[in-house]
């Protein structure tokens, strides 16, 4: 799901959730406001949620389709 994000959002999500950096640390490293980082991470999480829901819906439809043809 992270790979579906724009590069800047992906890097911020990775830094925050994988590397454990605070939003303030990320903001300082990038020379931007903490609010910019916070908003970017929030948008990224919403995008990943949508991406994963779509992927799960697709997998569910495929499973139903395969079950219908196994009979």
What does this structure look like?
This protein is mainly α. It has 3 helices and no strands. Helix 2 packs across helix 3. The longest helix has 37 residues. It starts with 6 loop residues before the first helix and ends with a helix.
What attributes does this structure have?
single chain; 71 residues; mainly alpha; 3 helices
Percent range of helical residues: over 70%
Give a quick account of the main beta sheet: strands, pairing sense, barrel closure. none
Would you identify the regions where 5 or more consecutive residues have pLDDT less than 50?
none
Q: Write down the Rg.
A: 17 Å
Q: What is the arithmetic mean of pLDDT?
A: 93
Counting DSSP H or I runs of 4 or more residues, the number of helices is 3
Along the chain, the helix and strand elements come as HHH
Brief rundown of the structure:
The protein is mostly helical. It has three helices and no strands.
């Amino acid at each position: 799901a992270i790979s579906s994000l724009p590069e800047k959002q992906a890097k911020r999500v990775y830094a925050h959730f994988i590397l454990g950096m605070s939003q303030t640390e990320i903001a300082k490293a990038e020379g931007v406001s903490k609010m910019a980082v916070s908003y970017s991470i929030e948008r990224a999480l919403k995008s990943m949620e949508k991406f994963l829901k779509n992927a799960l819906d697709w997998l569910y439809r495929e499973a139903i389709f395969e079950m219908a043809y196994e009979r």
